[in-house]
Amino acid sequence: MLSQKLVTRVKEVLSRVAEVYYSAGLNVLPTWSWKKIPAVRKGEGYEKWLVRRMTREEFESFTLARIRDTKEFRNVLGIAIVNGIGGVVTIDYDVAKNGSPEIEERVRRLVREFGSFVYIERRVGADGSKYGVHVVLRVPNPRELDVRVEHPYSGEITVRTNGITVVAPSIYAPRSRISQYVKLSFVDISTTYYDKDLSVLKEILLVLGVTKIDVGKGAPARIGSGFRGVRIGLRMGREIDSVEKALRLLAEVGKVLGCVGFVKVVEGIARGEWFVEYRILREVVNVNHTRSTWTIIENHIFRTLAEAGVREEIVWQVANLIRSLEEEFLKRNGVSDAAVYDHIYENLENNVEQALKFSEHGHEPSGACIYRLLDLCPNPCNSTFLTKLFSNPQSLKIALMRVVNGV
After folding, report:
1. Residue 283: predicted pLDDT
2. What is the reported pTM?
3. Using one digit for the tens of pLDDT, what is the confidence trace for 207-224?
4. How far is Cα 252 from Cα 263, in angstroms, rounded to an integer?
5. Considering Cα of 316, then 292, then 330, then 270, what sign does the dihedral take?
6. What is the DSSP string of 298-329?
7. Cis link prior to 169 (omega < 30° from 0)?
């Protein structure tokens, strides 16, 4: 347990940094020391600040008050910025092979070539362990930006234009493993480079090992014959104004498509239960990086909501409900695997971000339905959920009409 003296000093520094970043036009949220999510009480939400600028009163009464609190929020020892607000985007270099010479050389080169004008940070353990790297830039219209990359498995690279990024000098200490986000650059986020033509962003990605970069605005997804929420049901989708309605919409889509397993999962969430086993399915996922059962199912859920035109704030509320249920599942089953907890605090958020761009990092190939693999569906069909969804876009319209009209 951290000493009160250390906690007080960390909170003093966090308050000053948060004030600087808010004054620079960013949204800043307080985070727990034991998980990388905003510090909210049970039943509270923070999703509205993922899509709009915080007012001064909200910043003071929520962010600063919880950072400075040494009782109820004693374990608030971090801050996060919201990507997309104030023009910021984060390149998240999630180091998979910790400590390999190739990765360390890439990080050194990154700091050497860009650290004088671009914000760079890294999470470092008290035992000397080195973790992922964040690079933060400011760009025009970040929420319209859609960057897709191809890269080696040695480190997963994501350009985040939504969601949150935990930043220095935050402390992260799950299960007594203490680490801290450390600034490696000479500039902070408030003064990081404004990359008007995205040229610096591309250069940084190349340094990190990206072999192909595709930058666009809302480029269509590369799977199936995906369609867009803006083409069907958007007006009705905006009427899905609660988590309850969103879950009912998902269930109705599953029923229209005849996807029994998907309906079972959604109805379980509606009951307050997550029962899906966490497994890595490298052998059935046709991508160059391992995916889990949780990621695949989350992709189905969030992509469906995005296609239906459901408001971003509601999608994040559904995600946070799923996160809490997954946490309860792990505690109930005595799971302590760090990789699984990393999924809850990082991968889930990334799955939401990708869905809002009408994309995803991984899904089952044709003929390998996740629900059949998990024995949740007895139907002998060979189609995956997304294949059914993309081949039957009217399913969304039918489901939306049922929910909105109360049928």
Report:
1. 54
2. 0.74
3. 988 877 877 654 433 333
4. 8
5. positive
6. HHHHHHHHHHTT--HHHHHHHHHHHHHHHHHH
7. yes
